[in-house]
Write a structure and sequence with these properties.
It is a single chain. This protein is an alpha/beta fold and about 325 residues long. Strand 9 and strand 10 form a beta hairpin. The protein is globular, with a radius of gyration of 21 Å. The protein starts with 15 loop residues before the first strand and ends with a helix. This is ABC transporter ATP-binding protein. InterPro entries: AAA+_ATPase, ABC_transp_ATP-bind, ABC_transporter-like_ATP-bd, ABC_transporter-like_CS, Oligopep_ABC_C, P-loop_NTPase. It comes from Streptomyces atriruber. GO terms for molecular function: ATP binding.
Length: about 325
């Protein structure tokens, strides 16, 4: 984790732009098996001009949650609200919604059609949504905002002629051309070289500051969260288990899971915490705290000494609210 100050400088505006309220997403089991609860009760707010990092191990449900916020996966129960209105899953309403909320994927090579020029890749969204203005001007403006200048120099290039960082900027330009209010970035720099990562993160911060753009950044990298996010939501087995400002969560983590994730960073003090086993199957979520089977605090006897070991094993924790204050879903942390 970088020792520089967190990237957050711009205060979020009052009121949530995007809200998940009591969100559950379940998938039928194979061959009549038990239902997999991929998202098992999530409340989450994203304010205007705010960058929220959603962090956790692979398989914790963060990508499914992000896809639901984009309208790609309807919730089993609960609701998604944007601009104060519940998300409408009819075709026309979803099309209008996706103009305002855009996705930036992890792998720019997979996101771009190798047979399409940069111009066509960026213009595709305009054509889908029936843009009536000057297409060339809009494409040039989006490429310029994404840091590809002069934009005309890139119009007729193909993805294979670009570097990885340039391809990711084209993907970002394709999202920006529709002038969205929020982007969902799924591991936006995971496939890039270290030398390019900082450039893309700086670009996302500049877009927030200049355009008031909100973002949900899905990542397993807590160092990335430190350098870009205003707020962090840590997800484990379908639920958010800790949330708060980036400074509070990443400098003073309360949940044992967050502590374990942070402990493996190069700058972290002390020995890394090695979690035993894999996250449980979402079709067989354990009773009590869903992390208790892997919890280093329970295994070490600290929870027993705090008098909460039985509660860790048998008493479920309430869903954290989506508001911005620091919260933790952990019997031991609350007993300290």
């Amino acid at each position: 984790m970088s020792t520089q100050e967190p990237a957050s400088t711009a205060p979020a505006t009052d009121g949530a732009l995007l809200t998940a309220d009591g969100l559950h997403i379940a998938f039928p089991g194979r061959r009549g098996g038990p239902t997999a609860r991929a998202v098992d009760g999530v409340d989450l707010d994203i304010k205007g001009g705010e960058i929220v990092a959603l962090v956790g191990e692979s398989g914790c449900g963060k990508t499914t949650l992000a896809r639901s916020l984009l309208g790609l996966v309807p919730p089993t129960s609960g609701k998604v609200t944007f601009g104060g209105k519940p998300l409408d899953y009819s075709g026309r309403a979803l099309k209008a919604y996706r103009k305002r909320v855009q996705l930036v994927l992890q792998d720019p090579s997979g996101s771009l059609n190798p047979r399409h020029t940069v111009y066509d890749a960026v213009a595709e969204g305009l054509r889908i949504h029936g843009y009536a203005g000057d297409e060339r001007e809009a494409v040039a403006g989006a490429l310029s905002r994404a840091g590809l200048r002069p934009p005309e120099r890139f119009f007729l290039r193909y993805p294979h002629e670009l570097s990885g960082g340039q391809r990711q900027r084209v993907v970002i330009a394709g999202a920006l051309v529709l002038e969205p209010e929020l982007i969902v970035a799924d591991e936006p720099v995971a496939s890039l070289d270290a030398s390019v990562r900082g450039e893309i993160l700086a670009l996302l911060l500049r877009l927030r500051d200049e355009l008031g753009l909100s973002a949900l950044v899905v990542t397993h990298d807590l160092g990335l969260a430190w350098n870009i996010a205003d707020r962090v939501a840590v997800m484990y087995l379908g639920r958010i288990v800790e949330t708060g400002t980036v400074e509070e969560v990443l400098t003073s983590p309360q949940h044992p899971y967050t502590q374990a994730l942070l402990s493996v960073l190069p700058e972290a003090p002390g020995a890394p915490v090695v979690l035993t086993g894999e996250p449980p199957d979402p079709s067989r979520i354990p009773g009590g705290c869903r992390f208790h089977a892997r919890c280093q605090v329970l295994a070490s006897g600290e929870a027993e000494r705090a008098g909460v070991a039985d509660r860790c094993r048998g008493e479920d924790l309430a869903v954290l609210s989506g508001a911005g204050e620091t919260q933790v879903a952990c019997h031991w942390a609350r007993a300290r």
